[in-house]
Amino acid sequence: MNGDPGSEKVEDIEIRLLLEAIYSQYHYDFRSYAMASIKRRLRQAREHLGFPTFSAMQESLLRDPALLPRLLGYLTVQVSEMFRDPSYFRALREKVVPHLRTYPSLKVWVAGCSTGEELYSLAILFREEGLEERTIFYATDINQDALHAAEAGIFGVDRIPLFTENHRKSGGKSSLSDYYQAAYGRVAFDKTLRRNVVFSDHSLVTDAVFGEMQLISCRNVMIYFDRALQDRALGLFRDSLARKGFLGLGAKESLRFSKHADAFADFVREERIYQRRFE
Amino acid sequence: MSAPRAEAVVIGASAGALEALSAILPALPARFPLPVMVVVHIPPDRRSLLAELFQAKCRVIVMEAEDKEPISPGTVYFAPADYHLLIEHDRTLSLSSDEPVLFSRPSIDVLFESAADAYGDALVAIVLTGANDDGAKGMRAVVEAGGRALVQTPESAFASAMPRAAIDLCPVARVMPLAAIAAYLLEV
């Protein structure tokens, strides 16, 4: 794309250089993100942060580290829901949990956990299924602010009706209200839910394998990656899964276009739950 | 006509979409030379049946878009419920869970803006019936990139707000009834 001089639009050149600058100076690597979405987010950030051009934004960013977290807020924070796509959690509960019960100890990796909605969903599901005591959850993200929010486990009370409805549809065996306390327009989730959770800064782009997981859930994270980076992340998941471990993706994500497709078998096809092939 | 060869079609529709699309998509021949990407506003909690519904009526291939899918000619791709659909420069589809735009996910503006970016002047963008103003900004981006803009005649639309908003923002858009839009695509 940047082969012939003059063939690339000025804005595209600026974005490429900006991402290069962010990587060189701060080691956050967005260079292989799917360009259409990141461009949209960057344009939004540029407007809101008040820069006339990406070049101007780059200059400030290189000299002012305080600008970085503000920009990362635009580039990485995903607003999710608890039990988003209830049928996915129902499939975990009904089809994956019976296999997980056969292990004396379990490791679960929520990759790209953002502000924790998926993590708390899984923690509640595991408690309901009596697996919580033998499980260690690893919740990782590249955004420190998001990780802190996940660790705090506080959500707006306005989101609770949706979370509650999702939880019910997922086959929840308890009431979601058993797990939080409400005050001042917010709810705080029970801290015992994070008793077995390790929160950690980890990048699917630049960091290495996490060991021997029985389940990796990574939903709507890789849609932001280009195909080469998706392959890297999927390679990481392949190498991080125990034999016959499970991988859960977002409802519209698929391994079909990946070079690692052969390493996984469909487990619950319509829910995008895969199983590491036995080799 | 001196317009450059079109490489892709994008369509946005909201209230009344089913009927409007039924006047256009089934008219496309099996060997339609272009891909067609469609955003219809649908509630987030519902599995979209649009692709199945139209596959039964159409000669072109109709499917729900998947992330990273290479774009093929003669194929209609519907944005899935609760995801934005975007076009990459390398002619693949991308999905995103970014916030709704104008309360909509999928958003017509998001599709149109990314398609304008990827296809430039080789794009045909069509705004059909709808009750909000999604698609207007996206259509302006298409026009600014040199692409062609078609809008359903507001009077003939089930809901006229969306076509009107698009015309207001893009006065150069050609305004025509559904039958003429279908005929235009056969010539494109």
UniProtKB/TrEMBL annotation, chain A:
SMART domains: MeTrc. It comes from the Bacteria. This is Protein-glutamate O-methyltransferase CheR. Gene3D superfamilies: Vaccinia Virus protein VP39. It comes from Ancylobacter koreensis. PROSITE patterns: CHER. InterPro entries: Bact_Chemotaxis_MeTrfase, CheR_C, CheR_MeTrfase, CheR_N, SAM-dependent_MTases_sf. Signal peptide: none annotated. Residues 10-279 form the CheR-type methyltransferase domain.
UniProtKB/TrEMBL annotation, chain B:
Gene3D superfamilies: Methylesterase CheB, C-terminal domain. Residues 2-188 form the CheB-type methylesterase domain. InterPro entries: CheB_C (IPR035909), Sig_transdc_resp-reg_Me-estase (IPR000673). It holds the Pfam family CheB_methylest. It catalyses: [protein]-L-glutamate 5-O-methyl ester + H2O = L-glutamyl-[protein] + methanol + H(+). Its EC number is 3.1.1.61. It comes from the Bacteria. The active site is at 14, 41, 134. Keywords: Chemotaxis, Hydrolase. The keyword Iron-sulfur does not apply. This is protein-glutamate methylesterase. It comes from Ancylobacter koreensis.
